[in-house]
Amino acid sequence: MDQSVQLNNKAEYYEQKAKAIENNTAISSDDPEAVQKLEDKIKRAKDIHAFMKGANKILKSKKLTDAQKMQKLVNEWDMKEENAKLAIEPNYRGAVGFPSYSLTNNNANIKRLESRLNELKTAEQEESKSLFKNEELEVFDNVEENRFQLFFDGKPDFEVRKLVKSHGFNWSPSNMAWQRKRTRNARFALDQLLTDFKK
Predict the structure, then answer these.
(1) Using one digit for the tens of pLDDT, what is the confidence trace for 53-70?
(2) How far apart, in whole angstroms, are the C-alpha atoms of residue 67 and residue 58?
(3) Whose CA is closest to 139, among 149, 128, 127, 125?
């Protein structure tokens, strides 16, 4: 947070900061520590949000002198004095502080991360189960592997393999199954694939 003020006069920095929060260290759903990592990522994003709001309140106050603003930034946000001095300087548009779009983007990112966290926590409560089975095919929802899996009775013909691949499923020699990571899009693709199989 303290380092961010060093680039206070560069408006594009704030947009980059919001994107960095979102893109920094992508967390895979396959990661056994995904829930903890997401919770940590959300906390960091919320800390940055609180910092931006708090700094803006100080920087845009009409009751404080520049010296008082600097002192409050140092005392309340542990900002280095040289960075506090940079923070009170207007940017090229004559504005100070973090622009509103930076807070809006960061808030949207927090909500997106919280939504994904809820999905992962819900998935932890689910159990593996068979979704469809006939003499030729079994469709298995493998929660432990985090995969939707297709088990055929023998090697499917070329047209079936082509259809399966077109829905994003790939052959896994280790699991002896056609599979795809469990996501909303994958479930939609799976439903479409089953519809095609039943035609």
Answers:
(1) 999 999 999 999 999 999
(2) 11
(3) 149
